[in-house]
Amino acid sequence: MPGQKLIWAGAGVISLAGLLLIGLGLNGIAGGPEPDPMAATVRRPPKVTPLKVPLKGVAAPMKAAQPTAVYIPSIGVAAPLMELGLDASGAIQNPPFDPPNLAGWYRYGAAPGQRGAAVITGHLDTRSGPAVFASLRNVKRGEQVQVLRADRSVAVFVVDKVEHTPKRSFPSKKVYGKINYPGLRLVTCGGAFDQQAHSYRDNTIVYAHLAAPYYPRS
């Protein structure tokens, strides 16, 4: 991608061992249906551009609805969402590498637009090239993240900050902890690639708040 140097170093695995939900009461959750990547029918919002909605302050929580796609206009992301649960070790499941333009929503957290921290993860790259969040590190404060939902509404978030952190000190409480407003966290890999661990050493985390709901007229 223009202006960005990407490193294809072996299997660019988004190892989420650093995302273990330690101390949050979420380890060991089991049960429920297995994630189905085809369950979400993806419909584009009217434009994959910043939506013209009031963006002052934090909006009131929206009614619960299944998220189906995520859009980040500033970096050209338009990706379907699948549900993610926990693996046997208590870490968040990974989205599959194929298709590379696929992100995942953590189903044991808040749904985007609801009160609480909604978490969406995606790969940085694959063996063959960039993946859905290849340019996530380029997102800036004040930019929009749009999450399309099954009821055809769009939860419009505004970025508060972008954080780069070593996986060994992943800020679990900041990402998964309770908050009293509708928030969003986008997570991918970053930093140098560890050849022995077959994983990147860092994470890029985008924090955002719900700025406005958007309801198309038709």
Give structural notes.
- The chain is mainly beta.
- The chain has one domain: Sortase (Sortase, Chain: A, Beta Barrel), CATH 2.40.260.10.
- The protein is 2% helix and 33% strand.
- It has one helix and eight strands, in the order E-E-E-E-E-E-H-E-E.
- The chain has one helix spanning 172-176, and strands at 67-72, 77-84, 103-106, 116-122, 144-149, 154-166, 182-194, 199-214.
- The longest helix has 5 residues, at 172-176.
- 41% of the residues are buried.
- The model is unreliable at 1-46 (pLDDT under 50).
Per-chain topology:
Elements: E1 67-72, E2 77-84, E3 103-106, E4 116-122, E5 144-149, E6 154-166, H1 172-176, E7 182-194, E8 199-214
Parallel strand pairs: 2-3, 4-7
Antiparallel strand pairs: 1-2, 1-5, 3-4, 5-6, 6-8, 7-8
The appropriate CATH architecture is Beta Barrel
> What shape does the CA trace take?
globular
CATH homologous superfamily assignment? Sortase
CATH topology: Sortase, Chain: A
Please, how many domains? 1
Note the gap between the termini.
35 Å
Briefly note the structural class of the backbone: mainly beta
Beta-strand portion reads 25-35%
Describe the biggest sheet? 8 strands, mixed, barrel
Estimate the mean pLDDT confidence: 79
Number of strands: 8
Q: Tell me, what is the CATH class?
A: Mainly Beta
Strand neighbour order, sheet with most strands: 1-2-3-4-7-8-6-5
Structure, briefly:
By secondary structure, the protein is mainly beta. Helices cover 2% and strands 33% of the residues. It starts with 66 loop residues before the first strand and ends with a strand.
